[in-house]
Amino acid sequence: MTKLWGGRFSEETDKLVEEFTSSIQYDHLLYKEDIEGSRVHCRMLMRQGIISQEEGESILKGLDEIEGEIERGELPFTPELEDIHMHVEHRLKEKVGPVGGKLHTARSRNDQVALDFRLYLRREGKELRGLLRDIQKVLLEQAEANVDLIMPGFTHLQHAQPVRVAFHLLAYVEMFQRDISRLEDWHRRTALSPLGSCALAGTSFPIDRHFTSRELGFEGPTRNAMDSVSDRDFAMEMLSILSIIAIHLSRMAEEIVLWSSTEFSFITLPDGFCTGSSIMPQKKNPDVAELVRGKTGRVLGAMVALFTTMKGLPLAYNRDMQEDKEPLLDALETVKGSLKVMTGMLKGTRFNREELERRAKEGFTTATDLADYLVRKGVPFRDAHGIVGRIVAHCVNQGLELDRLSLKELKGFSPLIEEDVFKVLGVKESVDSRDSFGGTSKREVERAIAWWREVLGEG
Ligand code: ARG
Description:
By secondary structure, the protein is mainly alpha-helical. It has 19 helices and six strands.
């Protein structure tokens, strides 16, 4: 097959080279954006009198047909035609004849691919935002349903202080909100169109980049043609955003694996989201959460891959940059899949009330409350810390929890301790006493739930 760029060549491209340089295996996903960009480019060429009305009409008709063919899976993809841009252009010439070759006037694949990928990612970004909203909504529903449920809060994976289950779940809602906000920033920063930058230096044809930008839903054209075709910040940034989402999901996945273990028994996962063992009949494994945790490695790998590819590239376009698509497209699918499956799993997760409440009391989780109690009686916090430390050591030796000690025993450590101490040693009292803004008290958690209900209700 003669290449669209074959003029200056006298030998056929080696088969190995065709296979090696082709990107159609993955960039065929950009067909919609490619055709959309071509349509707008064609209409602009007509408006500017660069091609005739008649020529433009036949190109537009051809593009419509090609879109249908690709949608119906009728256009075969071949490495000989390298990428999606060449496939569309080649097919267009087959359909409308030599006039199809006029579409590429005042355009290069360099600005074409920069446009297509940007458009594609802007769409994906919106979908991603929707999936983040979905998981936030399920977390909020679970928070509302479990607002009275208390569990141990951890630091260093050791019992720290009791908290509400809802409070813990809302921490994830916050994390996903930051992801959404990063996506929104990204969306604002990618609002300029590179189309019309051509190979690297602009064009001598009287094109209208403002028209094409507007028609494609951008705020305006990019300012520097050389930067526009060299820039892959939008792809690197998207990979950073995806990596952080994946890290958030992996932390949640890790907690799900732990919490569903026999040792924790905090939660029961829905059967439909677990798998069994081929040998051990009793097993119900949290493979979904494990895979979400595991796939994070893949997403981070994709980010490092593109960052490394871009490092040290001279301006403007280099073929290295074709390596932007595979990792990013894979990372997108991976993160979208992880979000969907985690949302489904969370929806069907049950919290085991008795176990959680029993555990919330273990490990001296109200020791800080006891120290605060002494502080209120006038003891400096550092001294109170020391006294309670000694009480805890005593309990550890005796194999007792704090609230099992008698008032007499407690008084032995500090004469300031009175009967009212037992109020602060209770888990529920402890939780509700943490009423500072952003704390875990019922009042604060209900305020947070109401706030989120409003934010998530707005879409
Ligand atoms: N498939 C190429 C890519 O994704 C398109 C741009 C090719 N441009 C070029 N001058 N070879 O980067």
